[in-house]
Amino acid sequence: MRFASLVAVAAxxxxxxxxxxxxADYPTKPIxxxxxxxxxxxxxxxxxxVFDQVGKDLxxxxxxxxxxxxxxxxxxxxxxxxxxxxxxxxxxxSAHTIAPALYSKLPYDTKRxxxxxxxxxxxxxxxxxxxxxxxxxxxxxxxxAKSKPNALSFASLGVGSAVHMSAERFRLSAGYxxxxxxxxxxxxxxxxxxxxxxxxxxxxxxxxxxFIKDGKLLALAVxxxxxxxxxxxxxxxxxxxxxxxxxxxxxxxxxxxxxxKPIVDTLNAALVKAVKTPSIIAKLDAIGIQTSTxxxxxxxxxxxxxxxxxxxxxxxxxxxxx
Length: 322
Description:
By secondary structure, this protein is of the alpha/beta class. Helix content is 45%, strand content 19%. The chain has two domains: 176 residues, D-Maltodextrin-Binding Protein, domain 2 (3-Layer(aba) Sandwich); 98 residues, 3-Layer(aba) Sandwich (D-Maltodextrin-Binding Protein, domain 2), CATH 3.40.190. The protein is globular, with a radius of gyration of 21 Å.
């Protein structure tokens, strides 16, 4: 009996040892970060800024790979199936907690297949429209949208993307119907709105700000609870009188389930250090990002809460993909 117990203990030790060794040595090679949206989106721009510093602090390059499509679910599925060794990261947005409410058959389980590392930060979405549309205020915009069903079209990054959710929350609050025009990436969506072929877009400030500043786009409102520091003269949808129209767009990092906790903690520490670095703060401030220093446990709690909240919202709004 004693021999059997010793054998069992030895077996457990051997099983645990590789993970412990990997965690102690980590990282020993470049790390891949999958972004489940196309180039040019805020979910692409922001992680690239932060990962550059994280890579320097960890002593290894972080190679970014864009895998856009289906509201972010294609890229997320790829990460869910990756080895849990800390060498594949998922840098995604609030779409992570929205997708389960919209897709009845996701190729992964959001709660079971991922471990939260930490949030990079949050950024308001801004309602933008081309000056050529002749709409100058949010009041004018809503009046035009209500003039007839589907009078206006809006850009999104697919049903269930964070920008789609932001547009839907405002649309339901304001009480109008509009046509959703999905794109694979934020750059394409922006170009179509600038050209006037799509009427408007609830775009992350990080992406839209340069075009607003050079006059190619007009900012009508922001989706945050308070005004954005990057656009102090632009009102929030809440202060304009549209209850429950606010939406928090966050960007965060996850790894596949079963990734050793020491590796998760190492990544979180590097992430927090990066967003506290003065040069990174300056870059993120310039594009309207409010940084975050959540622990893995705190970020997990936020994700779990949103999974419940968005499931209820999607049901009430009749939002479903399949």
